[in-house]
Specification:
Helix content: 40-55%
Number of domains: 1
Oligomer: single chain
Structural class: mainly alpha
Number of strands: 2
Largest sheet: 2 strands, parallel
Number of helices: 4
Radius of gyration: 18 Å
Order of helices and strands: HEHEHH
Length: 92
């Protein structure tokens, strides 16, 4: 399930701005029916309301930097896979 950039994402960001919230749009995590509609959302309309329009890697890097700054050590995928294997199977 997803939201269309030129309608739902745009409306949500605009609504948030009207209430004083800062919104960040992750442009490679949105979609639209055509390149024209995507361009209209990301390059024309959303810059008027969004605090920033970024790509997913920028969000991941920012979160990683914040985690490092406060001393949070990420759990490795190996540790997670061990935990998942030790869980009982879901009941039917």
């Amino acid at each position: 399930m997803g939201l269309i950039a030129h309608t739902r994402v745009e409306a949500t960001v605009r609504f948030a701005a009207e209430f004083g919230y800062d919104s960040i749009v992750v442009k490679d995590a949105t979609a639209d029916y055509s390149d024209t509609e995507m361009h209209a959302a990301l390059a024309v309309n959303l810059p008027s309301y969004a605090s920033a329009i970024v790509i997913a890697n920028e969000v991941v890097e920012a979160i990683s930097a914040l985690n490092s700054a406060v001393g949070i050590v990420p759990v490795s995928h190996v540790a997670w896979s061990h935990k998942l294997r030790s869980l009982p199977p879901p009941s039917a």
